[in-house]
Amino acid sequence: MEKSVELQERKKRKTFREFGVLMVLAAIVVVLSIASPSFLNPINLINVVRQTVEIGVMAIGMTFVIVSAEIDLSVGSIFGASAMLAALIIKSGADPTLAFLASIGMGCGIGFANGFLSTKARMPAFIVTLGTMQLFRSVAYGISGGQSISAFPEQSLNSWVFQMGGNIGPIPVQVIIMGVMFVIAHVVMTKTKFGFDTYATGGNKRGAMLGGINTDRVKIVSFMLCGALCAFAGIISIAYLKSVPTTAGTGREMDVIAAVILGGAALTGGRGTILGTLIGAIIMSVIKNGMVLLSVPAFWQTGFIGVVIILAVLLDTWITQSGKNK
Question: Where, by residue number, does the polypeptide cross the bilayer (predicted)?
Answer without folding.
Answer: 21-40, 60-90, 97-117, 123-143, 164-189, 220-244, 256-287, 299-319
